[in-house]
Design a protein that fits this description.
318 residues; Rossmann fold; eight-stranded mixed sheet; NAD(P)-bd_dom_sf; NADP
């Protein structure tokens, strides 16, 4: 089991004077990260569609005693608005001349009924399932926007030829345990969270080589936040392995600042972090079969394991 060990000394010192841009910080895990990074001396720029929640958190932090000299600024950002996300990054870069870390935590869950056997019939199937497509847009399209912008800003000023233990700058994308296991009925949510792991898998071979950064995804089980308020009593009654916001923040920060962490999908359960990608990769010959596993490896090598396939093997221009 590839369990994540917490280095308290690292988490105490690494955030100092670092520039962090975060999308989805008005509540839940995002707000926890904003608060903790600020308290450890980081310069945090965060946005959320909940503009009131953003401003309230910003004012609370700025009015608190803070000997670490961290700073915090909030922005009204709908993640589906590319220009709004871009403006947040641009402002942070203008203030400091760099962006060191970027974290995407925005997310919403499915509304009931759109894929329910009890509700779906030949009459209401005529409706476009906008509630579900909105989930995909917030959770995945916004994440793609964030990732593209973050890569441009994070790589600015980075020497990709430098040798060392690993790049310090990193990109964190919040997926879910439902991004790699089945979640009955959560169709849009599950699809979008699987997609976030797909982003990490497609960029991890290129992140260090081409951008000089690391990229990882975080996959919590149910965490005691407003998103699961309607289900929290049931989950507690069955002794579900819930997370706390503070526990998730610890694991995320460890993954952010650990220069060896790249391409992981870190399950957080009962406030413990476990990288799922390492075991999945190492055990592939067992669960897929040796022949199929070797053929996939051969194809990867032929096409170029560390090559940008969209750049090398397609005719589509941007």
């Amino acid at each position: 089991m590839a369990e994540i060990s917490i280095d308290e000394a690292l988490l105490g010192s690494a955030p100092k004077d670092k520039v962090v841009v975060l999308c989805g910080g008005a509540s839940g895990i995002g707000a926890g990260l904003v608060s903790k990074l600020f308290s450890r001396g980081a310069h945090v720029y965060f946005g959320d569609i909940n503009a009131v929640g953003c401003k309230t958190l910003e004012e609370q932090l700025n009015s608190s005693a803070n000997s670490s000299r961290g700073t915090v600024s909030s922005f009204p950002v709908d993640g589906r608005d590319y220009a709004a996300q871009l403006a947040m990054f641009k402002y942070a870069f203008e203030q400091h001349g760099r962006v060191d870390y970027a974290i995407f935590t925005a997310g919403v869950s499915d509304q009931k009924g759109w894929f329910s056997a009890a509700n779906l019939n030949l009459e209401n199937v005529q409706q476009v399932p906008k509630a579900t497509t909105d989930v995909v847009d917030v959770n995945l399209t916004a994440c793609l926007y964030f990732t593209r912008i973050a890569l441009a800003y994070l790589k600015e000023g980075v020497d990709t030829t430098a040798q060392g233990a690993g790049p310090s700058r990193s990109l964190i994308l919040l997926s879910s345990a439902n991004g790699f296991q089945e979640a009955p009925g959560l169709v849009g949510y599950s699809a979008s969270k699987h997609g976030i792991i797909g982003i990490v898998r497609s960029l991890r071979p290129l992140a260090i080589k081409n951008f000089g950064i690391r990229i990882n995804s975080i996959c919590p089980v149910a965490t005691d936040t407003p998103m699961i308020a309607a289900a929290i009593d049931l989950l507690k009654s069955v002794n579900a392995p819930l997370n706390t916001v503070a526990g998730c923040v610890h694991i995320i920060m460890q993954t952010m600042f650990d220069v060896k962490a790249n391409g992981q999908a870190v399950l957080i359960m009962s406030d413990r972090g476990i990288d799922t990608e390492t075991g999945l990769t190492l055990s592939r010959p067992q669960w897929l079969g040796l022949w199929a596993s070797e053929e996939l490896d051969r194809l990867q090598n032929v096409l170029g394991q560390n090559t940008d396939w969209a750049q090398a093997h397609t005719n589509q221009e941007s």
